[in-house]
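As agreed, record minuted below.
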Amino acid sequence: MQSESREPILKTNFKKIIILTISIVIISLLLFRNFFFKSTYLLKSFGELSVDPQIAFTNNKPTFLEFYAEWCEVCKEMAPKVSALKDEYEKDINFVFLNVDNQKWGNYIQKFDVNGIPQVNLFDKKGNLISKFIGKQDEIKIRQSINNLKKEEKPYNEMISEKFSTIQENQNIGVGPRSHG
């Protein structure tokens, strides 16, 4: 008899524990979403924080140009480092972020031969390509190249990492949002 009366109490307590656990998880995700999804948030904000490329190449300042995609895991991994560089150098250098999924940047993707992302191109204040980084890069290497830009040192540098996302061109329609993988 006693076991029969305990069963509804146990079911009720179990339901309460499940509801409480689910509530805690949802509240935690809402409160800490910037922590959990910081890289994705940074990538989405890059396009909004970007200097227009036409302005960047004509305003007599060095330019940091990054090609990225929101789905790119390597881009997400590098986003906090790139954001820190932007915060540190944005007064002296243009920061341009072009999402390869946006068709309006197709001419820049072709012009700068973007085959893998993230791709960072550094230009001097006259618009000459000084450094090109493809794939995951060490922040120190990029920082050194930025400092060389500020000193106006001209050694061309191309750094390609084995960790990058490939962009494949569709022969029928050119570069588009679904033409890379």
